[in-house]
Design goal:
Elements (H helix, E strand, L loop, with lengths): L2 E2 L3 H7 L9 H31 L6 H30 L5 H35 L1 H7 L2 H25 L14 E2 L2 H43 L4 H38 L8 H25 L1 H11 L15
Parallel strand pairs: 1-2
Helix pairs in contact: 2-3, 2-9, 3-4, 3-6, 3-9, 4-5, 4-6, 4-7, 7-8, 8-9, 9-10
Family: Belongs to the G-protein coupled receptor 1 family.
Organism: Carassius auratus
GO molecular function: trace-amine receptor activity
Length: about 325
């Protein structure tokens, strides 16, 4: 969300739509690109939701968290991204105060749910590797569903309270902009709850995950050498360990690369600074593009998603008992 600690009346007085004269063909290209990105985001995350929901083999704790992330990304593609990109293209907010109020709550909800879900994924992977027996006994799909539901409800209550306390739902709004205006205390709380705490958890736990995965790979290699297994099997074990580490690294790095500029910009750059208008819009757009990138990462690196896509595109999901098909 676009945060500023200025008073709303001050923002209305200081902000004015910059004049941008572009040709009709440029407008068509920009809106076509915005529509294509939004459609790709919606379709990609819908495929993830259908895959995890339909196939019973995929009803695992880790995949339930991926499902939650896909739902929040879907909200971004359906609602947030089209309105934001339209605002960027027009340089002014043209959708009215009602849509602005709706955008504020949906944007805030999707943002906080996404960040906290990635933190839950980090916790899930850490427990699975560090305490596999405890994980298999205590962490069930039901437990994960409860944690996911709590995440969504907490985020909804937190964001609604934050916006309501700072009077972001009143009828007096700037006709040309749609931003979340909060005071200094609320901004500090939001920084801790939505950024510092989850990102600290993500970085620390994924660092431990890499260390544990490396130890497991080293132990497996040592055992194979001790048992004098074939060198080809050793290479397979090495490659599988490296692939798992690379996958975790890509997911974390891509998420942080999209998240960090967004929060740094919203905290450092005042919204009335027209000189950095483009910088602010670029960082917000990059953060939203993470919702587009996530399904692409799944398609490139998750075999179960690749098999699910084949069954969906060949319409085999409509067959009787298709939910019991093997996708692993």
């Amino acid at each position: 969300m676009n945060l500023t600690t200025m008073n709303q009346s001050d923002v209305c007085q200081e902000y004015s739509c910059p004049e941008r004269s572009v040709s009709f063909s440029v407008y068509v290209i920009l809106y076509a690109a915005a529509a294509a990105v939004s459609l790709l985001t919606v379709c990609g995350n819908l495929l993830v939701i259908i895959s995890v929901s339909h196939f019973k083999q995929l009803h695992t704790p880790a995949n339930i968290l991926i499902l939650s992330l896909a739902v929040s990304d879907l909200l971004v593609g359906v609602f947030v991204m089209p309105l934001h990109l339209s605002w960027v293209i027009e340089s002014c907010w043209i959708s009215g105060p009602l849509m602005c109020a709706a955008l504020k709550i949906v944007n805030s909800q999707a943002t906080s749910v996404s960040v906290h879900t990635v933190a839950l994924i980090a916790i899930d992977r850490f427990l699975a590797l560090s305490s596999p027996f405890l994980y298999s006994e205590k962490i069930s799909p039901t437990v994960t569903c409860i944690a996911t539901l709590f995440n969504w409800l907490f985020s909804l209550l937190y964001n609604f309270t934050l916006l309501f306390v700072n009077e972001n739902f009143n009828d007096v709004t700037c006709p040309e902009i749609c931003i979340v205006i909060i005071d200094v205390v609320s901004s500090f709380i939001d920084l801790i709850v939505v950024f510092l705490m989850p990102c600290t958890i993500i970085i620390i736990l994924y660092t431990h995950v890499f260390v544990i995965a490396k130890k497991h790979a080293t132990a497996i290699r040592a055992l194979q050498i001790h048992n004098r297994t074939g060198s080809s099997k050793n290479r397979v074990g090495d490659k599988s360990g490296q692939k798992a580490a690379i996958l975790l690294g890509i997911l974390v790095v891509v998420f942080l690369l999209c998240l960090l500029p967004y929060f740094i910009c919203t905290l450092v750059i005042p919204y009335s600074d027209d000189d950095l208008f483009h910088v602010r819009d670029v960082t917000v757009t990059i953060f939203f593009l993470n919702s587009t990138i996530n399904p692409i990462i799944y398609a490139l690196f998750y075999p179960w998603f690749q098999k699910s896509l084949k069954l969906i595109f060949t319409f085999k999901v409509f067959n009787k008992d298709s939910s019991l098909m093997n996708v692993l």
